[in-house]
Amino acid sequence: MSPDGGGVGRSGRLEPGRDRRDWSDSARFAAAFVRDPVATASVWPSSTALARAVADAALAGSSRPDPLVVELGAGSGAFTAELARRLDRRARHLAVELNPALAHRLAGRLDDVEVVPADAGELPTLLALRGLPGARGVDVVVSGLGWSATRPGRDDSLLPVVASTLADDGVFVQFGYTFTRWAAPARALEAELHELFGEVTTSARVWRNLPPALVHRAARPRG
After folding, report:
1. CA distance 40 to 70
2. Are 150 and 157 in contact (CB under 8 A)?
3. Contact between residue 45 and residue 73 where contact means Cβ atoms under 8 Å apart
4. Can you tell me the distance from the alpha carbon of 62 to that of 68, in angstroms, rounded to the nearest whole number?
């Protein structure tokens, strides 16, 4: 049982008395990693503690009554469910997930989230097909993607694509693992965030995750 004693139902609302982690989802996530470790990127879903830290970073200071929130690499929905709970149906919430089995499962759990089974690299097309983001841009992009998908520091990096979709006051949130922070891709990611955004902050370690993690928050995309 999670500390708050509740879970997220099909509507995305918190339901009392239900564990927020569905362990069958965790098993499916691990199985997806075994089948395709490059696409899945992690062997185990993110913890509730990390989901809360990501949602804190994504929604802190948000004043729009109806934000447009896009999640990349939704996986089994650890971040998706926490974001949906806090947004409480007041947002347009898209969750992009490449793995069709995980996407199907997530769509069945959260009927107030639009789950898109597609490659995050197709983000501009996915938005355009839905008439988004409109004149103002995307308010929040949350990424659960690994380095193989974000490709920081490379010519085909996904980060400039994401930045180009954001509103002038938009926010991009990306988590990472503390034990790999000094690896070349992690350093490239932080350097590119500083190039693309006027404000970049990194959270304290989230110890209650396997493995311990941190959260990067990038705001005010440059031009």
Report:
1. 18
2. yes
3. no
4. 11
- 109-167 residue pLDDT tens: 999 999 999 999 999 999 999 999 888 899 999 999 998 899 999 999 999 999 999 99
* Tokens coding 222: 């440059």
Q: How far apart are CA 222 and CA 206, in angstroms?
A: 29
Secondary structure class of 8 (helix, strand, coil): strand
> Within a 10 A sphere around the Cβ of 19, how many other Cβ atoms?
12
Bridge partner list, 177: 213
Contact 102, 29 (CB under 8 A): yes
Largest CA distance in the chain: 48
Pairing of strands 213-221, 138-143: unpaired
Instruction: Show the tokens assigned to 210.
Output: 């396997």
Give dist(CA 187, CA 176) in Å, integer: 11
Residue 153: φ, ψ to 5°:
80, -5
Phi and psi torsions of 45, nearest 5°: -65, 160
